[in-house]
Design brief:
The protein has 241 residues and is of the alpha/beta class. It has a single domain, classed as Acetylglutamate kinase-like (Carbamate kinase, 3-Layer(aba) Sandwich). Helices cover 39% and strands 19% of the residues. It is built from 9 helices and 11 strands. The strands form 2 sheets. A 9-stranded mixed sheet has the order 4-3-5-2-1-6-10-11-9, sandwiched between helices. Helix 2 packs across helix 4. The longest helix is centred in the middle third of the chain and has 25 residues. The protein is globular, with a radius of gyration of 17 Å. 44% of the residues are buried. It catalyses: UMP + ATP = UDP + ADP. Keywords: Allosteric enzyme, ATP-binding, Cytoplasm, Kinase, Nucleotide-binding, Pyrimidine biosynthesis, Transferase. Belongs to the UMP kinase family. Pathway: Pyrimidine metabolism; CTP biosynthesis via de novo pathway; UDP from UMP (UMPK route): step 1/1. Pfam families: AA_kinase.
């Protein structure tokens, strides 16, 4: 069996990724593919935590642009992440992967409350832990949630799985034919050049806590496993220069 480079990881998935080509909702084949890739990594003995966005169902910014109170719009986005988390949990458990959903908003009928020590204990027992409902606070993205939870559970890396891009580019490769793909960057580079890998709050949190980030495409099956095994895929964003 191959030896993983990382023993504990946070996998960050965008909500839009779950929609696939549908553009909205949860695409069954996509979520099964994601669950399969998570299982491959868990079978290596790697401790896996997952943070899922909610943009396939609701985006807080859209609500605020409609004139909705930003706090209410963001809470709706958090509830969308809970729906995605439960769907991913179900797909994983159909593959016999023990999974726990922990929510930052108390909803005990469907998920455990987020408790750091309990999350770590689940991971030590080789259960996949899905962190739902963001940080539980408005004005914070799920990117920031991934950075915060990675720091709290002492994850060795954040794996940022993208839907339509295979790394970090100097510009949007769909709009600029001269866009250059980076193999490595520092968080300072990301912040200075405004590359949009993560929002500035998340990038600063990762930089301050020296948490590396690997940005890659999950649409090619097996990429999550390759990242965990230390293969050169996507773009590595380092905690320090």
């Amino acid at each position: 069996m191959a030896n993983p480079t990382y023993k504990r990881v946070v996998l960050k998935l965008s909500g839009e990724a779950l929609a696939g080509t549908d553009g909205f909702g949860i695409n069954p084949s996509v979520i099964k593919s994601i669950a399969k890739q998570v299982k491959e990594v868990a079978d290596l003995g790697v401790e896996v935590a997952v943070v899922v966005g909610g943009g396939n169902i609701w985006r807080g910014k859209v609500g605020s642009e409609m004139g909705m109170d930003r706090t209410s719009a963001d809470y709706m986005g958090m509830l969308a992440t809970v729906m995605n988390s439960l769907a991913l949990q179900d797909s994983l458990e159909q593959m016999d992967v023990e999974t726990r959903v922990q929510s930052s908003i108390d909803m005990r009928q469907i998920a455990e409350p987020y408790i750091r020590r309990r999350a770590i204990r689940h991971l030590e027992k080789k259960r996949v832990v899905i962190f739902a409902a963001g940080t539980g606070n408005p004005y914070f993205s799920t990117d920031t949630t991934a950075a915060l939870r990675a720091a709290e559970i002492e994850a060795e890396v954040i794996l940022m799985a993208k839907n339509n891009v295979d790394g970090v580019y100097s510009a949007d490769p769909k709009l600029d034919a001269n866009a250059v793909k980076y193999e490595q960057l520092s968080y300072l580079d990301v912040l200075k050049e405004g590359l949009g890998v993560m929002d500035s709050t998340a990038s600063s949190l990762c930089m301050d806590n020296d948490i590396p980030l690997i940005v890659f495409s999950f649409t090619e099956e097996g990429n999550v496993k390759r990242a965990v095994l230390g293969e050169q895929i996507g773009t590595l964003v380092r905690g320090k220069e």
